[in-house]
Amino acid sequence: MDAVYRRQKHIYDATRKYYLFGRDGLIAGLEAAPGMAVLEVGCGTGRNLACIARAWPGARLHGLDISEEMLSVARTRLGADCTLARGDATDFDAKVLFGRTTFDRVVISYALSMIPHWERTLGHAASLLAPGGSLHVVDFGDFEGLPGPLRGLMNRWLARFHVSPRRDLVGAAMRIAADRGLPEVLRCDNGPE
User: Fold this and answer.
1) What stretches of 61-117 show up as alpha helix (H) in DSSP?
2) Beta strands 187-190 and 37-41: pairing type?
3) Do strands 103-109 and 37-41 pair parallel, antiparallel, or not at all (unpaired)?
4) Do the beta carbons of residue 5 and residue 173 sit within 8 Å?
5) How confident is the model at residue 162 (pLDDT cuts 50, 70, 90)?
6) Which residue from 179, 142, 186 is spatially nearest to 26, judged by alpha carbons?
7) I need a labelling partner for 3 at 20 to 30 A (CA). Which of 86, 159, 169, 178 fits?
8) Whole-angstrom Cα distance, residue 141 to residue 167?
9) What is the DSSP letter of 144?
10) What is the pLDDT of residue 5?
11) How far does the chain reach from its first CA to its final CA, in angstroms?
12) Is residue 38 within 8 Å of 30, Cβ to Cβ?
């Protein structure tokens, strides 16, 4: 991933605002009270964590990403206000990386579509929830509402960046929630708003 983001990291946020529409709605719905621990899996440049800090002051922020290139941008953006770590989203040890085993809110924003074992990542994220915690996910779906040519164009564009829309994201999230006895999936969007 470092090879992908080595050059992109400088323009990533400016270009993604045109098609990562669900991020801000996800952040607005977090309800992260002061003192709550929030983890973003696949935090990239730290853009979402910075937005979470503004929207939910007092939340304790944590971010994980596999790309050191992206984390270098996040460290500059967030400073000491966030604990950042490099790791594989499918099986990282939260206690080792963050000094804690659970989080009140876990966020995954447009990252599952880049992770080969995305369902394992989703399950691992759910396992990190504190009692009463919630998992918030937004990612690409099948673009069903778009005309065929535009849908094809979007899929080809995303493939250039190693992105594979997760057509069964909502179904997988519901299965994981049921398997783990979670009362509900509070927010799981599959596709642009």
Assistant:
1) 68-78, 94-98
2) unpaired
3) parallel
4) no
5) confident
6) 186
7) 169
8) 5
9) T
10) 52
11) 27
12) yes
